[in-house]
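Field: COMPLEX_INPUT
Field: COMPONENT_COUNT = two
Field: RESIDUE_TOTAL = 475
Field: MODE = joint
Values follow.
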Amino acid sequence: MREIDAQQVTATVRKLFIEANTTLGQDVLSALKRAITKEESAIGRQVLEKILQNAAIAREGSLPLCQDTGLAVLFVEIGQDVRIVGGDLRGTIEEGVRQAYADGFLRKSVCDPLTRENTKDNTPAVIHLDMVPGNQLKIIAMPKGGGSENMSRAKMLTPSAGIDGIKKFVLETVEKAGANPCPPIVVGIGIGGSLEHACLLAKKALLRETGSPHPADPRLAQLEEELCGQINALGIGPAGLGGKVTALAVHAEMAPCHIASLPVAVNIQCHVARHQEAII
Amino acid sequence: MNDKSKMSANEVLSIRTPLKADVCASLRSGDMVLLTGSVYTARDVAHRRLYEALKKGLPLPIDLSTATIFYAAPSPTPTGRIIGSIGPTTSYRMDVFTPALIEHGLRGMIGKGSRSPEVVEAIKQYGAVYFGAIGGIAALTAQCVKRIERVAYDDLGPEAIRRLTVVDLPLVVINDTLGNDLYLSEQSRWRIIPE
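Field: COMPLEX_OUTPUT
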């Protein structure tokens, strides 16, 4: 049994959320640079240039890329040979979130759904905990903005709807979203499983290196490419001001589902596609 | 400065708050502007409170007459800086409250994303204007803010109403007094696949 100190978990979570909120990944920066070469709209190119300029300013000044520093979403994989000492795992993670949002001057954006009263420390976090073989602890911090999350949707399709039904739902979702989710977006698609599993797959799909095709399933890689082309033909463009680049990437994940069902979820991510990970 | 008839299509207009009626009337969907002056930040809960106060005939904590509201809630101000990061939130959530605010004098709105037909109509009827700002470039946008003051609803934390002094805040006119909509016109211009 390997022991990991709870304080180390807290420090790691704190660091990851500050980093994620101030530093855009190289994959996203590369995707944005590629987008500039593809974008034919002059104003669209200006928007993309400003996004890159903002990323540079944020990184240099350790400033939040976006004022919406998100709901703290975490994917945590704990090896079954790991024991956390000096605190409970969820509690130590929450403390890391609390410290990141206080010390990093990040906005506290969590509130009671009904009274709308702010919890003032950006907790509770949304923690997806998974137990895996091994003696390591993997933590992925994903601050998720409200604007793009609001444009995300899930639907229980019928099996007869098939792949065409999935494509139609994805396109409809992106089209309805328009300028709202801060395009160019990354589109995460979850197909199959149960209702909540499809949603989780869609969110996990956003964690893949931006623009890389599905590594294992050529059907999904083809679906991603096809949908990306169709989404970019919608004309929404950077900041919704019209153009060729509406999506930087489309990522899909799939799981087997019930014979009666065809769940599909679309999780939309704004161009500030933030996530950082660490392995302890 | 107020005479924009001489401006060419791609020129950037410098305008000031409080927005004058003739400036609002002359702005056209697609105009790029640099806005200088005072704007209020207000978003979801602040809008509900303003709206409810109006409905009850209670006094408002801000003077809506000729005011400009930026749908925004900045991140906290780091030590030694004027403001944290700031940028537009999605505007449609304010749509249910906006026509009443426009009716009571609100003239400028800054946000992102499309507005409801009711808001577009109120903009036409009362000579207001809806500006789009680019979302997700909040560290850059913060450089346009020279001053931030607390005004009202401090209990709302990031959602409190603040007065910002901005200089040359880059915006684009989305909805004008003629009922034009830049998102609709530009997106359909670039659309390749049929509706």
